[in-house]
Amino acid sequence: MRRAIYPGSFDPVTFGHLDIIRRASKIVDELVVCVLNNNSKTPLFSVENRVKMLEEVVRDIPNVKVMSFEGLLVDFAKKIDAQIIVRGLRAVTDFEYELQMSQTNSILDDNIDTIFFTTSLEYAYLSSSTVREAAFYGADISRFVPESVVNQVYERLKDKGEKNE
Ligand code: ADP
């Protein structure tokens, strides 16, 4: 059983993430998308909300599961018996950080390999932070995130008293 883990913040999930999820799910038996519970970042959405949004958008892909985790990624990967870490690369700016992470992870556990998917050109510019910022200023974000996510982003920004209307 070839199981891969796709970790990230997914705050919120975008079409760029979804593209990586669809492509990665085709080359493994099971893909576990993992929402990172990271204390050092102040996310827009709670981990529970991010998991729910992801579950909704991957419902039609049978071999994809969504979970959340805290702590070291390699420990979690080992726990769920995943041998592969999936990450996406958009631009050169992602490269240095991703290379460092994958090298650190392979030193921590050399049974786990990281594979990278290069972004589809149409999503190369897209990041969760761009989506949050565009929504904050009232832009239409339906080109960036799945339909079920769009209103949740506006609502959440409004709840936080941050929406600029
Ligand atoms: P993190 O905080 O771990 O970087 P993100 O949710 O921002 O979490 O990203 C998770 C992964 O998805 C990263 O590997 C990132 O490079 C990748 N990714 C994000 N947006 C895109 C995109 N538009 N195209 C391809 N990969 C992407």
Structure write-up:
- The chain has six helices and five strands; from the N terminus they run E-H-E-H-E-H-E-H-E-H-H.
- With 165 residues, it is an alpha/beta fold.
- It has a five-stranded parallel beta sheet with strand order 3-2-1-4-5, sandwiched between helices.
- Helix 1 links the parallel strand 1 and strand 2 (30-36).
- The protein is globular and about 45 Å long.
- The model has no long low-confidence stretch (mean pLDDT 93).
Structure at a glance:
With 165 residues, the protein is of the alpha/beta class. 41% of the residues lie in helices and 19% in strands.
Query: Bound compounds, please?
Result: adenosine-5'-diphosphate
Broad structural category: alpha/beta
pLDDT averaged over residues: 93
How many strands in all? 5
Q: Order of strands side by side in the largest beta sheet? A: 3-2-1-4-5
Helix content: 40-55%
Please tally the helical runs, counting DSSP H or I stretches of 4 or more residues.
6
**First and last CA, distance:** 50 Å
